[in-house]
Amino acid sequence: MDKSNLNEIENIYSCWDKESRKFISPLVVSDEFYAWVWQNMPYSKKEISPEDCIFTTSKGEKVRSKSEIIIADTLVSKGIPYNYEKELICADGKKLYPDFLLLDVKRRREIYLEHLGLTDDPDYMNMVVYKINQYAKQGIYVGVNLFFTMESEKHPLNRNTLIGTLDNIFG
Fold it and tell me: What is the maximal distance between C-alpha atoms in the chain?
């Protein structure tokens, strides 16, 4: 089936009233519908005290840092759906809370984004290495479906670098 036939099928389905669509599950869903379902799926988030989430994104979501606002608002501006600190349960039962889980709608894949905000702190970086190893055990690999943004005291998060990275990943 070629793309024009898929578009025709989607057009017919979208013309039906909401009540009729309840009884039909399309075999092929549009990217828009796929993203909407993914974005609206409930999920468990990391429990964070209100004192730790004092920053608010353009979507009204509470995050823990100014850099996470920049990341979240950049994702929104680029139309990239994301979940913030969605729980990931590892095979051994341990839980990770990636800063952002992104949806690559075109390729129908999930990509993890971790922001490393304390790269000057050796203990923090040891925890990062631990998390990278945990991710790898789950089939989540750096450069494949996991990438990082980072900053240090002397080098804050660079929004242009973030945009370039997102453009490279999401094309």
Answer: 58
Buried b (16+ CB within 10 A) or exposed e, 112-145: bbbbbbbeeeeeeeeebeebeebbeebebeeeeb
How far is Cα 76 from Cα 23, in angstroms, rounded to an integer? Answer: 32
> β-strands 62-63, 95-96: how paired?
unpaired
Residue type, 118: L
Taking the CB of residue 97, how many other CB atoms lie within 10 A of it? 17
What is the β-pairing status of strands 109-116 and 146-150?
parallel
Instruction: Supply the pTM of this predicted model.
Output: 0.79
Tokens of 145: 């479906």
Residue 120 CA to chain centroid, in angstroms? Answer: 25
% of the chain with per-residue pLDDT over 70:
90
pLDDT for the residue numbered 20? 78
